[in-house]
């Protein structure tokens, strides 16, 4: 995978991550989602730690990054990318084939759940939470991060 597919607020490369910050991998095929997330979370601290956003623009790039076994605390993951269930494929790969020592929280963000209902998605044991993009506000995003990242 080429490193130019991944960028971070602090110019962190794919080979180095911040240890005193929450490392959050944003996997989404919509550039506007990355831009909005970056702007919304700039200078935010959760449980006294800043946020280091790392970006991948497809499920394939996301899995390639996760295969590097770099410590990721949370994945903000789009459901519908290359396929209607690309996000679910990433979660299944991560839980079944990913690094057992690094099992990040997975939050599914979707504009449209595709062929699955919200109840179907939340019943999947691989997913720690879900929020629909149409209902996502700055305050809801901060609340979600605060509730799901460990103290």
Helices and strands in order:
Elements: E1 21-27, H1 31-41, E2 45-46, E3 49-56, H2 59-66, E4 74-78, H3 86-97, E5 105-110, H4 118-123, E6 129-132, H5 138-148
Parallel strand pairs: 1-3, 1-4, 4-5, 5-6
Antiparallel strand pairs: 2-3
Q: How would you sum up this structure in a few lines?
A:
By secondary structure, this protein is of the alpha/beta class. The protein has 5 helices and 6 strands, in the order E-H-E-E-H-E-H-E-H-E-H.
Question: Can you describe what's shown?
Answer:
With 151 residues, the chain is an alpha/beta fold. It has a single domain (3-148), classed as Response regulator (Rossmann fold), CATH 3.40.50. It contains 5 helices and 6 strands. Strands 2-3-1-4-5-6 form a 6-stranded mixed β-sheet. Helix 3 (86-97) links the parallel strand 4 and strand 5. Helix 2 packs parallel to helix 3. The longest helix has 12 residues, at 86-97. Residues 1-16 have low confidence and may be disordered.
């Amino acid at each position: 995978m080429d490193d130019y597919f991944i960028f971070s607020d602090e110019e962190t490369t794919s080979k180095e991550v911040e240890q005193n910050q929450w490392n959050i991998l944003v996997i989404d095929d919509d550039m506007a989602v990355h831009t909005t997330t970056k702007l919304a979370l700039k200078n935010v601290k959760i449980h006294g730690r800043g946020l280091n956003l790392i970006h991948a623009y497809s499920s394939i790039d996301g899995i390639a990054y996760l295969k590097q076994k770099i410590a990721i605390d949370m994945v903000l993951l789009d459901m519908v990318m290359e396929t209607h269930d690309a996000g679910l494929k990433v979660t299944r790969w991560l839980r079944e084939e990913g690094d057992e020592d690094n099992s990040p929280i997975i939050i599914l963000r979707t504009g449209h759940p595709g062929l699955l209902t919200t109840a179907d998605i939340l019943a999947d044991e691989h997913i720690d939470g879900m929020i629909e993009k149409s209902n996502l506000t700055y305050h809801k995003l901060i609340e979600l991060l605060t509730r799901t990242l460990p103290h």
